């Protein structure tokens, strides 16, 4: 690649402006260069690199793709990967100070977990006509119960002031939510029942005589409908920072230079002649704060930027699915979208062809249609 | 301004889609060398509608219609998804979690 094109994928970060923002890898943009879509080229250049992969958190790089693709996948992870969440709460008794509707909202936001395959196997709960509730089944609805009543602790000392000693069951936690499997759920969730992903979420506080007793129906949904269905706590990407030192920075200036960046970004190496020199060590740690651009002594010596086709993804799961699985589901969802849209276009083209033929026939009516035309006159 | 051949350009109204598919589709259709212009818009945020416009270079009108470019874009996007899945799984399966001393976010 020529030297000029090496800087082509760098977004310039200047003191007051950001330059070279848009990608230009389209046919017809650069004379004599072929930028048309080529899956072989994509297979050769596209890279994925993992940095962390735990069930709840993944960090990985997508290299040599466009922001359009990276952003689409990020958006799908947040808004279109389905999860199970509490949708309806049927309150039998709630004498706590937290109101029914507030309690229901709090319950809805609790992330659930359970057997992953069984969760994926659940079907959509579709409302009937006029969005009237439909009879739930074991295929589309998971039923949970929560029942807790607070009372005085008979063993408490008179001098006690700590609620933990004075009362029994005064805290309602997410771990108190119990699963009631129905039908085939008894088998599919046998080893891994539906429960709160984080058992220590405090739902409500009670005092002696107060009680919460309710039934919850959980259904599958997507984040587009309500944030409680979003499988991720955060799914974000940033571009890889780029620091270019144009002239060697040596001696005391090297230390001042390193101090402009977060730890680990700039290393100070000792040269053969014993002088210190600043070199770029780990750009991933940089926050691109532009602090270095405020110092006159480094003016024109350093260029900051970001690599436009290098995306550092961070995906944090809420606990229902593993973070890497959520990304794969997002890619699968995007592919499903293309297939569904293609099917709809075929349908549209067939209808258009049919309409065109009808219109032609109306213009040159044969004997039968002439009779009809006479009637309407 | 020239009058366009009616078969050389078209706008498609896609219901129930937004920027998620719109921008990805725009990118991949713009990668098609027969396409002179491709853009998408969401006319109003309250309406679940996404409009995508495609114009074909006049020299390709004979054998390429805008919906052909749209179909090709969808196919290319599906290929891209397949390869991302493949590359992602490969990288994940070969990845060894480093010691917990390098927390990089």
UniProtKB/TrEMBL annotation, chain A:
GO molecular function, one term: DNA-directed RNA polymerase activity
HAMAP family assigned: RNApol_arch_Rpo3
Matches recorded under InterPro entries: DNA-dir_RNA_pol_30-40kDasu_CS (IPR001514), DNA-dir_RNA_pol_insert (IPR011262), DNA-dir_RNA_pol_RpoA/D/Rpb3 (IPR011263), RBP11-like (IPR036603), RNAP_Rpo3/Rpb3/RPAC1 (IPR022842), RNAPI/III_AC40 (IPR033901), RNApol_insert_sf (IPR036643), Rpo3/RPB3_RNA_Pol_subunit (IPR050518)
Keyword terms of this UniProt record: DNA-directed RNA polymerase, Nucleus, Transcription
Family to which the UniProt record says this protein belongs: Belongs to the archaeal Rpo3/eukaryotic RPB3 RNA polymerase subunit family.
Protein name, as recorded: DNA-directed RNA polymerases I and III subunit RPAC1
Pfam families to which the protein is assigned, alphabetical: RNA_pol_A_bac, RNA_pol_L
Region listing for Disordered, in residue ranges: 357-377
GO cellular component, as recorded: nuclear DNA-directed RNA polymerase complex; RNA polymerase I complex; RNA polymerase III complex
Major localisation: nucleus
PROSITE patterns attached to this UniProt entry: RNA_POL_D_30KD
Domain DNA-directed RNA polymerase RpoA/D/Rpb3-type per the UniProt entry, residue ranges: 57-344
Single Gene Ontology BP annotation: transcription initiation at RNA polymerase I promoter
PANTHER family listed in its UniProt record: DNA-DIRECTED RNA POLYMERASE (PTHR11800), DNA-DIRECTED RNA POLYMERASES I AND III SUBUNIT RPAC1 (PTHR11800:SF13)
Location in the cell: Nucleus
Automatic annotation (TrEMBL), chain B:
The DNA-directed RNA polymerase RBP11-like dimerisation domain, residue ranges: 10-85
Primary localisation category: nucleus
Assigned GO CC terms: nuclear DNA-directed RNA polymerase complex; RNA polymerase I complex; RNA polymerase III complex
Keywords: DNA-directed RNA polymerase, Nucleus, Transcription
PROSITE patterns, per database record: RNA_POL_L_13KD
Taxonomic superkingdom: Eukaryota
Gene3D superfamilies listed in its UniProt record: RNA polymerase, RBP11-like subunit
GO biological process terms held by the UniProt record: termination of RNA polymerase I transcription; termination of RNA polymerase III transcription; transcription elongation by RNA polymerase I; transcription initiation at RNA polymerase I promoter; transcription initiation at RNA polymerase III promoter; tRNA transcription by RNA polymerase III
Subcellular compartments: Nucleus
Entry coiled-coil feature ranges: none
InterPro entries for the chain: RBP11-like (IPR036603), RBP11-like_dimer (IPR009025), RNA_pol_Rpb11_13-16kDa_CS (IPR008193), RNAP_AC19 (IPR033898), Rpo11-like (IPR022905)
GO function terms (MF aspect): DNA binding; DNA-directed RNA polymerase activity; protein dimerization activity
Recorded family membership: Belongs to the archaeal Rpo11/eukaryotic RPB11/RPC19 RNA polymerase subunit family.
Protein's name according to its UniProt entry: (Perigord truffle) hypothetical protein
Source organism per UniProt: Tuber melanosporum (strain Mel28)
